[in-house]
Structure formats: structure tokens, C-alpha cells
Amino acid sequence: MSDTASIDNGALAAGVLALAERVAAAPHRSAALDGICKSTVELLGCDRSSIFLLDGGYYRGKHNYGNPPDIVKFFDRHRVRLDDPLISRAIETRSFVLENRAADGELMNRDTARRARIRSIVIAPLFHPSENAIGFLTAEYNENPGTFTETMSTLVLGAASLAQIAIARDDDRLERERAETELLANERELRRLAAVLPIAAEQERQRIAAELHDTTLQELAGLAMALGQLEADYSGNGISGRLAAARQGLQVSIRTMREFLTEICSSILPDLGFAPAVEALCDGMEERYGYRVALALYGPLDAPDESATILLYQALRELMRNVGKHANAKCVRVEVRVEDEQVVVRVADDGAGFAVPDPIRVATSGGGFGLFSLQQRLLLGGGRLKIDSQEGRGTHVEVKYPLGTSSAVE
Length: 410
Description:
Layout: H1 9-25, H2 29-44, E1 48-55, E2 58-66, H3 71-78, E3 80-81, H4 85-93, E4 97-100, H5 110-116, E5 120-127, E6 133-141, H6 150-233, H7 239-264, H8 268-272, H9 274-289, E7 292-297, E8 301-303, H10 306-327, E9 331-339, E10 342-349, H11 371-380, E11 384-389, E12 395-402, E13 407-409
Parallel strand pairs: 7-9
Antiparallel strand pairs: 1-2, 1-6, 2-3, 4-5, 5-6, 8-13, 9-10, 10-12, 11-12
Helix pairs in contact: 1-2, 1-6, 2-6, 6-7, 6-10, 9-10, 10-11
């Protein structure tokens, strides 16, 4: 464009709007920056527009449009120093720098201007949202005899602002992608732990139960037999009654420990399967706590995997134990079914009820596997725990856990 002064403020505004639309429509940063260079040349009628970005201690040409088309290779090969006077001035003033080459070629440095054939140039700085300089945008006349005006230079500055937006938008996208990737990795790790922890915990429970059975319980049984023998030896003596009372108390402790060992592990699951194990659990809770259990199993039921089967069994056991210890209920309804690709366990009682805390942080008895612990374990595997209770009106608890395909609940 030889009549450079013909670009007025209206044309400037329209040009910036066209640039903004091109940036908004670009699918990624590279396309946006290439488009800015192209639009700058088309709007100003100049020969070339280039974008240089900070790279390894220099500014290197990354995007270019115009003649000669290989100029970016020249700048990339020779690099632009961070302390180049024109670049430094643009960054310091945070505005454009307009320079027209004199006859002797004094522009930027003499060699660069001559070899790049620059006649007139506008340089506009690029900044990161952190306020650090990250590069610059240029518009140049090299083949044609035109020169830039202040109005045209303002459009170049506007193009640089849009380039900053495109870069920041892409940085935000990359940061979101990085955060999403990290989040997905964390979720996968949590799900892995959710699958491993119940099995590991159950193995440890069985180990402890076996050790207590083979050592402490056997020693208590031996002590009970010794007390029985002493009771027989002193049958006619006044101490006999006290020995009998001690033996009976010890036998009660032995029965309690056996019940505890039965509860802390779910060793019947591999032998019976989930449904029969639930039936046996309900029978045991009826006998231990005295309430009546109405059990409804809707099948066939599919469990996600072994760890989920253990977790669901432990959840039901914990809930029924809480009813026996705290609810003073006469009847408990237990329901297990599949709904919306989830295994659903519901436990409802007609007991005392309670005020549900939010969030659930009530740790109950049962080896530390309280409501809060249960809730967290369910959440790790994508499940959830819902409690509906009011004082004097009973409690309804619902456990949901994602349905899997690796194993079936018999």
C-alpha cells in the first residue's frame, strides 16, 4: 500500500475487530498467531509480519507471513538478542516502536537491516499475564517503498495484544489439560487403592484372628480347664464357689472373643458367596442382638470385584451392629439389589433414631470401621453412603457401589 495515510480510525477499528474474530475462531495457538501475521499484512498492505518468542535466551522467529517468506529462517538462525535496542525500547515503553531506515541502512543494527532488506518496521512487544516480556510482533516494508504511520502502528500494537490473548488462552488450556490429567491420575490411584485396601485389610484381619485363636484363645481355654480342675480338687472347700465363678466368667470371655474373631474377618465370603454370607450375617445378628431381620435379596447380583464384595459385606455388618448397639430396635429391614448399574444395600430400623451429623464424623465401634470410615472407603471406589434418621423415628441407611463385571455375587 503506497497511500499509507489513507487508513483512518474507522478502518483501524474494523481491522482490529477482524483480527479479534480471526483469533477467536482459531482452533489453537499456532493457527491464531499465523492468522494474526496474515491479517496484519492484509490490513496494512505491508510486505511481512512476524512473531518472535522467547526461546533459550534469545528471541526466535516462530510465525511469519509475507515476503520474503524465508525471513523467519534468517532471524531464527541468527537470533535476536534480548538487549537489541529497538526491542528493549518497545518492552520498556510497553508500546510500539516505529523506525524508517535511513539511506545508510541504520535500522536495528546495520547488518540485520541490510540483510533483511527492511525499509520500515513497527515493533510491538508481547507480555505474559505475569508481566514478563515473552516476545514481539513486527510489521515491515522491505520490497515496497511504503512506510508506516502512527495510526498503522497502533493497529500493529492491537495485533500484538490479540497475540498475547491467544498465547495466554493456550497457556490456560495447557494448564487445564495438565490439571485434568493430574486429576485423572489421582482418581485412578484412588480407585486402585480402593480396590487394594479392603483386600489387604481383610487379610490383616484374618491374620490377627488366626493369631488370637491359636494363642490367646487357646491359652484362655487352657486356663478355664485348669480352673475347672482346681474347682474339682477343692469341691468340699469354701474356695470352690469362687473358683466356679471365675471359671464361668472366663468362659463368658472366651465366648465373647470367639464372637469377636468371627466378626472381624469375612472368611465365610470365599466359601459361601455374598448372598449366603449376608443371610448368615443376618441370622447371627438376630441371635446376638435380639431384633428381627426381614431380608430381601433381589438377584442375580453382580459385585464389582472381590474388594467391593468385602466392602459391601463389611458395610452391612457395621450398619447392623450399630442398630444392635444403639437403636434399641425390634425390627430391621435389609434389602440388597441392583439399580442403575450399582449394587444397593438398604438397612432400615424402627429404633430410636439420631440426629445425623454433616459431614458424618461419628466413629462407632467395630474395629474402627465406623460410619465416617465407611463413607470414605465407599467414596474412594465411587460409591456413597446416605443416612436418613430422626430421633424417635428410626433410621434408614442406603449404600450404593458401582457395579462391575469381573465377578458375580452368588
